[in-house]
From TrEMBL:
Repair polymerase that plays a key role in base-excision repair. During this process, the damaged base is excised by specific DNA glycosylases, the DNA backbone is nicked at the abasic site by an apurinic/apyrimidic (AP) endonuclease, and POLB removes 5'-deoxyribose-phosphate from the preincised AP site acting as a 5'-deoxyribose-phosphate lyase (5'-dRP lyase); through its DNA polymerase activity, it adds one nucleotide to the 3' end of the arising single-nucleotide gap. One of its GO terms (molecular function) is zinc ion binding. Residues 2-316 form the DNA-directed DNA polymerase X domain. It comes from the Bacteria. Pfam families: DNA_pol_B_palm, DNA_pol_B_thumb, HHH_5, HHH_8. This is DNA polymerase beta. Residues 54-73, 94-113, 129-148 form the Helix-hairpin-helix DNA-binding motif class domain. It comes from Candidatus Colwellbacteria bacterium RIFCSPLOWO2_01_FULL_48_10. It catalyses: a 5'-end 2'-deoxyribose-2'-deoxyribonucleotide-DNA = (2E,4S)-4-hydroxypenten-2-al-5-phosphate + a 5'-end 5'-phospho-2'-deoxyribonucleoside-DNA + H(+); DNA(n) + a 2'-deoxyribonucleoside 5'-triphosphate = DNA(n+1) + diphosphate; 2'-deoxyribonucleotide-(2'-deoxyribose 5'-phosphate)-2'-deoxyribonucleotide-DNA = a 3'-end 2'-deoxyribonucleotide-(2,3-dehydro-2,3-deoxyribose 5'-phosphate)-DNA + a 5'-end 5'-phospho-2'-deoxyribonucleoside-DNA + H(+). Gene3D superfamilies: 5' to 3' exonuclease, C-terminal subdomain, Beta Polymerase, domain 2, DNA polymerase beta, N-terminal domain-like, DNA polymerase, thumb domain, Metal-dependent hydrolases. It is found in: Cytoplasm. Keywords: DNA damage, DNA repair, DNA replication, DNA synthesis, DNA-directed DNA polymerase, Methylation, Nucleotidyltransferase, Sodium, Transferase, Ubl conjugation. GO terms for cellular component: cytosol. InterPro entries: DNA-dir_DNA_pol_X (IPR002054), DNA_pol_B_palm_palm (IPR028207), DNA_pol_lamdba_lyase_dom_sf (IPR027421), DNA_Pol_thumb_sf (IPR037160), DNA_pol_X_beta-like (IPR002008), HHH_MUS81 (IPR010996), Hlx-hairpin-Hlx_DNA-bd_motif (IPR003583), NT_sf (IPR043519).
Length: 577
């Protein structure tokens, strides 16, 4: 079985190999096809098996030649063209690409000149001081690569939780078909909705554990069986991700779910509370002596321990247990509370779809509004908008709103921008134009390497612009790829309060900034936040859910999140500030 992610990965590698050859258009074509496949909601393999190559050609960005490659991959598990490219430059692309600043051409140069094939080789070359003397690289590159290597090794193999969802759902569906299986849930950090997960922890209720274990260990994604016991097994998938499986009987379900959801620190604290009541808590239940007093549901366990139910996102032992004991847990934001999306890109710049397509897709998800926030002119790579094109877009949006309301839709498209913050903290569009927009997001896309003082000053100046409504993706990190730029985030949060600037919880999986801790600081100070998808494709609009998870992990309530407010209230708030 071949997943969309497998196809996207190989197409992307082809794109990168072609990029090494200084090919003009082909790399982008493969990249676009990879993006399209990745964001399909249905399996490309299934589409192919029912509709043949023609079904593949219907995928946006997939023409004859790429469709043939995908067909070959589905049929044979290989692509000859890829093998030829790889033979020419036999490097571990997916490894090397994790280093910030290492693009296809540089990878090729490092291979040609120093024979660097993977991160280990790169590490050695740096240690031997070879990069600094290399033409086109120099000492600055060497320092940068060194930092990149340190970052990658500390990030390990963790994956943004969003990207594990399709896989988990697929495995769940499969295990649910096994005879005797009632429930399959993913526990662990996946259920707590951490930004990234280290592995997947599955819990299955069944009295026939052997059948479940057999099905699990023989899945096509499995590369290696790490452990296989009666009720406990563990595998490594071909992608490198580990999956743990526990099979438990019905009466222990709540206890097992609680135990395997964690976090470990939360569990330890619960166990101590149990001991205080003369009880014993483990993965099978809550016991008084040998008598089971609770265990079938998590609610039973919390209630028996005289605690209110604690949602998984809060279970980090950072104060939630004390509040649960007093019945004073915050009423955190609910899934479904976010009414609209305040950061959406379109094909006016680097997005894949038109304004109308994005609006229709958002309506389907039940959203009440979206703000179109395309990039601005100084972001040349994204074809950013200048004043003239932005005005043109604003007219199109006005016309679209008239059309939507005539058609009876309770939906609005807001005029907005993701306005670049220039190096000195001024904005990339004139104030007169910003004043006419509904939503002004400001963000940093350049000069990442300023000192902490300079960067903080730059951002503060942008936030102080009276038209700046929201500071988008406020730390600029890309999970697993780069740390954020150097900025004094505590100072930014205080400045947000002083200037009534909203800080964004960016729901795009690699971004996920603000972090849960920073969200909590905002909540404590009364700084307002928005949860935005940062969609560049229709299928990205649903990322909002991960932003909600992050907000919940940061203890945010409806009061803290402006796009959870009624539209009029939010709109007035944006206009005022
Ligand atoms: P991860 O996988 O690194 O993203 O984080 P988790 O939290 O999923 O950790 P994992 O997979 O090692 O273990 C899953 C859960 O099992 C964990 O959240 C709590 C529970 N657990 C694991 N080891 C221990 C332990 O030594 N003591 C206790 N009380 N619970 C544990
Ligand atoms: Ca885990
Ligand atoms: Ca685990
Ligand atoms: Zn951006």
């Amino acid at each position: 079985m071949i997943s969309n992610a497998d196809i996207a990965k190989i197409l992307r590698e082809i794109s990168e190999y072609l990029g090494m050859e200084s090919e003009p258009f082909k790399p982008r074509a493969y990249e676009k096809a990879a993006e399209a496949i990745e964001s399909l909601s249905d399996s490309a393999e299934a589409a192919y098996s029912s509709g043949g190559i023609d079904a593949l050609k219907k995928i946006p960005g997939v023409g004859e030649s790429i469709a043939e490659k995908i067909e070959e991959f589905i049929e044979t598990g290989k692509i000859k063209y890829y093998a030829e490219l790889k033979a020419k430059t036999p490097v571990e692309l997916s490894e090397l690409r994790r280093i910030e600043g290492l693009g296809p051409r540089k990878i090729k140069a490092l291979y040609d000149k120093l024979g660097i094939k993977n991160l280990k080789d790169l590490d050695k070359a740096i240690a031997a001081g070879k990069i600094r003397d290399l033409e086109g690289f120099g000492e600055k590159s060497e320092i940068k690569f060194k930092k990149g290597l340190e970052f990658v090794s500390s990030a390990g193999n963790r994956m943004p939780v969003a990207y594990a969802v399709p896989l988990v759902e697929e495995i769940r569906a499969r295990l649910l078909k096994v005879k005797g299986v009632k429930t399959v849930v993913a526990a662990g950090s996946y259920r707590r909705r951490r930004e990234t997960i280290g592995d997947i922890d599955l819990l299955v209720i069944s009295n026939e554990s052997k059948r479940v274990t057999d099905c699990f260990t023989s899945m096509p994604e499995v590369a290696q069986i790490l452990a296989s016991g009666e009720t406990k097994s563990s595998v490594k998938l071909k992608t490198g991700m580990d999956v743990d499986l526990r099979v438990v009987p019905d009466e222990s379900y709540g206890a097992a779910l609680n135990y395997f959801t964690g976090s470990k620190d939360h569990n330890v604290a619960l166990r101590e509370i149990a001991i205080g009541f003369g009880l014993k808590l483990n993965e099978y239940g809550l016991y008084k002596g040998s008598k089971l007093v609770a265990g079938k549901t998590e609610e039973d366990i919390y209630n028996t321990l005289k605690l209110s139910y604690i949602p998984p996102e809060l279970r980090e032992n950072t104060g939630e247990i004390e509040l649960a004991r007093k019945g004073k847990l915050p009423e955190i934001l609910q899934y479904g509370d976010v009414l609209g999306d305040l950061q959406v890109q379109t094909n006016w710049t680097d997005g894949a779809h038109s304004i109308l397509q994005m609006a229709e897709a958002a309506m389907k998800l039940g959203r009440k509004y979206i703000a179109i926030t395309d990039h601005t002119k100084s972001l040349g790579v994204a074809n950013g908008l200048d004043e003239k094109r932005l005005r043109e877009q604003m007219r199109e949006i006005d016309a679209m709103n008239v059309h939507l309301s005539q058609a009876g839709h309770d939906f609005r498209v807001l005029k907005g921008t993701e306005c670049d913050i220039l190096k000195d903290g001024r904005l990339d569009l004139p104030d007169s134009l910003l004043a006419e927009l509904d939503v002004v997001g400001v963000s940093v896309h350049s000069n990442f390497n300023l000192s902490r003082e300079e960067q903080t000053k730059r951002v503060k100046r942008a936030m102080a612009n009276p038209h700046a409504d929201i500071f988008f993706h406020p730390t600029g990190r890309l999970i697993g790829k780069r740390e954020g730029y150097q900025v004094d985030i505590d100072e930014i949060i205080r400045h947000a309060k002083a200037t009534a600037t909203v800080l964004e919880i960016n729901a795009f999986p690699e971004r996920s900034d603000l972090s849960d801790q920073n969200i909590r600081k905002c909540v404590d100070l009364g700084v307002k936040m928005s949860i935005d998808s940062d969609a560049h494709h229709m299928d990205h609009l649903s990322f909002i859910e991960y932003g909600i998870s992050q907000a919940r992990r940061g203890w945010a309530t409806k009061r803290d999140i402006i796009n959870a407010w009624p539209f009029e209230k939010m709109f007035r708030f944006l206009k005022k500030s």
